[in-house]
Amino acid sequence: MKTKLIAFAISLLFVVGACVAQSDKEVQDVVRQRVEVDKVNQSIAVAFIDENGTRFFSAGKMSAAADAKNTDENTVFEIGSITKVFTGILLAEAIKRGEVELDGPISKYLPNTVKTPTRNGKEITLLDLTTHTSGLPSLPTNFKPANNDNPYADYTVQQMYDFLSGYTLTRDIGATYSYSNLGVGLLGHILALRAGMSYEDLVRKRILDPLGMKDTTIVLSPAMRARTAQGFTADGDPTSLWDLPTFAGAGAIRSTAKDMAKFISANMHLTKTDLAGVIDVSHKPQRDASAKMKVALGWHILAGSTGDIIWHNGGTGGFRTFAGFSPSLKRGIVVLSNSSVSVDDIAFHSFDPQVPLVKSRASISVDAKLLDEYLGTYELAPNVTIIVTRDGDRTFAELTGQPRFRIYAETPNKFFLRVVDAQVTFNRGTDGKIESLTLHQGGDKIARKVK
Predict the structure, then answer these.
(1) Strands 319-326 and 309-316
(2) Closest CA to 329 of 346, 307, 313
(3) How many of the other CB atoms lie within 10 Å of CB of 236?
(4) Could you give the CA distance from residue 432 to residue 425 in angstroms, rounded to a whole number?
């Protein structure tokens, strides 16, 4: 894939400790710094929710056009994988209505023509799908987009059925957390089948309309499209909106900061709603995602010294988003950006100012002849390589099974990525030639140059 982040998805970088609430000025200053000073994100809209109500903060423009409008709480963004928590609430509601069972096998809810994968006599259940413990991969092996700028648009239900019928699980069901867009996309599809309507109609009827979220949708009306921000890659290039007809439940929703504030307020029980019971069910921890994080019905729950943070982030080709809240602090936040640069640090910093904000890195120009020395294939592990390429004055690194991302020179031999907190250092041997690179991401890993 091009420079598109295919996994809309989750990463955990912070542990929350004792905290003091940020002032409104501090929140606005953080947003302005990121957009207007560091120029890392094209624009950002924030909703801050607590017992005193909701406050909105924003900076930047909806697009790079000279006459672009300012981004605000009514600007429409793709929320990506935050859609998964809507699917989790729909699951809790479907269980309440008797349409499905949490431990019901997926074979029970799919057409008889679909042969669902099993392992050691065990079947995948709806609980396995929503908690990313199904053993299914992040994406199906027959996922081959015709258009890399809108990669999910042409993937069909029949293709998903064909994949399931032919796939052999490589992990035990229910044993290991492994984030899967396929799994939650399949869950959304099953819930829509059981309800007898499309996923969009289902989420509108059972969540959006009851919560008064009139500016949240999948298919944009002309009026909403006019208020939709242009998405940008981490390199600042404009990119397309994403359409996910088959995987709608994994990442298809578009919304505004104002509407998402309503959603978080309902989850914090600051707004009275008949959905309160199923919302509570969706918050209940189900399985471990890591030593410090559990997964509920879609939501991820991070344990900290001041209590849990219930959250999810999202990302599509040109958007990064976050929605979460702390029940103990009685504080929630929504952060929406139309750039594919993470905003998670802004959100976690709002819960605990001791959590550092990601520092902006300045890039330098490097001579083309030096860049050419870095090009090649580096072996990180058996069958896992990093391929370094160049397109004009742009240098890229591509890890096996991942998209190609641009890397920026910080020094003549040390580069950084903007889409994730990672750096690459190119190393010379005693003969003066490039012999390896070091990947700095959660530790240092050396990859030997093999060609």
Answers:
(1) antiparallel
(2) 307
(3) 15
(4) 15
First-last CA distance in the chain: 22
| pLDDT, tens only, 140-177 | 999 999 998 999 999 999 999 999 999 999 999 999 99
- What Rg value do the Cα atoms of the chain yield, rounded? 22
Burial of 393 (0-12, 13-18, 19+ CB in 10 A): exposed
For residue 65, report the phi and psi dihedrals to the nearest 5 degrees. -65, 150
- Structural domains of the chain ordered from first start: 24-351 (3.40.710.10), 368-449 (2.40.128.50)
Whole-angstrom distance, CA of residue 102 vs CA of residue 289: 18
Task: Give me the pLDDT at residue 20, please.
Answer: 56
What is the model's pTM?
Answer: 0.87
SS (H, E, C) 93-107: HHHHCCCCCCCCEHH
Per-residue pLDDT, 13: 42
Contacts of 59 (CB under 8 A, 6+ apart): 28, 31, 32, 34, 35, 36, 43, 44, 71
Map tokens 């995602």 to a residue. Answer: 289
Which of 373, 378, 374, 371 has its CA nearest to residue 450?
A: 378
HEC string of 372-411 equals: HHHCEEEEEECCEEEEEEEECCEEEEEECCCCEEEEEECC
126 and 102 Cβ atoms separated by less than 8 Å: yes
Q: How far apart are CA 302 and CA 135, in angstroms?
A: 23
Rounded distance, CA 71 to CA 152, Å?
27
Look at residue 10 in the predicted model and tell me its pLDDT.
57
- Which stretches of the chain drop beneath a pLDDT of 50? 1-7, 9, 12-19
Query: Which pLDDT score, from 0 to 100, does residue 21 have?
Result: 63
